[in-house]
Amino acid sequence: MAEIENDQVGEDGAGPREYRVAELAAAAGITTRTLRFYRERKLLPPPRREGRIAWYGQAHLARLKVIAELLERGHTLGGIAELIGAGESGRDVAELIGLEAAIISPWSDETPVSLGWDELRTAFGDQLTEANTAESLAQGYITVTEDGITHISRRLMDATTALIAEGIPLAAVLDASRKAQEYADAMAEVFVGLIRDQLLAALTGEEPLPPGEAAHLTEQLTRIRPLARTVADAQFGLALDRRVHAEYDGVLRRRR
């Protein structure tokens, strides 16, 4: 039988708030047509039925808010259905969203910087060549506009201009940058592999995560994220110590 859908409040008095279709759609900020579509796609659990009336609860409203958040993040409805299938409640899905954010949100805190062509010519002079610009583009550090460039990292841009000021050619800086990027990618691969294999192995299985596990993993990742930067900085400093001694000890001994 068709369910009755109107705007009357469900129950006066005690108990959790319940909604009829129009009320639930209004509370979620969607149309009743959209809500019915989600229901047909089995994105919502069945309502509680009382005769011909369908009642929806807070879990349904939470699920609709989760769906809205996932759509905003770029997920398709098919992907949302799979993600929701991994959990038994809106809370489970919300925890999975939090875990996803902890994994894929930026691990760096670099801020971009934009420079006009006049500023670039002042900083780099005749080293502002097509070849050097193309190399910077190829490394993924800059985007070019009619007015100038935008560099993805103010700190890297400042370091580049400081090295140029010390007399090191821009082409040499870019060559070192390409090699450093390769080594940084290799270090990131090691650290990501450690997290994947030791913490997130359960995500690769077909079984749903135990209740609360996604939230627990999110908390772990939140604590571990800054450790990646600490490890990278410490390892690089120690590597510099080793390389400097290996490279220059012999040179300095010959100069004595």
TrEMBL record:
<dbReference type="GO" id="GO:0003700">
    <property type="term" value="F:DNA-binding transcription factor activity"/>
</dbReference>
<dbReference type="InterPro" id="IPR009061">
    <property type="entry name" value="DNA-bd_dom_put_sf"/>
</dbReference>
<dbReference type="InterPro" id="IPR000551">
    <property type="entry name" value="MerR-type_HTH_dom"/>
</dbReference>
<keyword id="KW-0238">DNA-binding</keyword>
<feature type="domain" description="HTH merR-type">
    <location>
        <begin position="18"/>
        <end position="86"/>
    </location>
</feature>
<dbReference type="GO" id="GO:0003677">
    <property type="term" value="F:DNA binding"/>
</dbReference>
<dbReference type="Pfam" id="PF13411">
    <property type="entry name" value="MerR_1"/>
</dbReference>
<dbReference type="InterPro" id="IPR047057">
    <property type="entry name" value="MerR_fam"/>
</dbReference>
<protein>
    <submittedName>
        <fullName>DNA-binding transcriptional MerR regulator</fullName>
    </submittedName>
</protein>
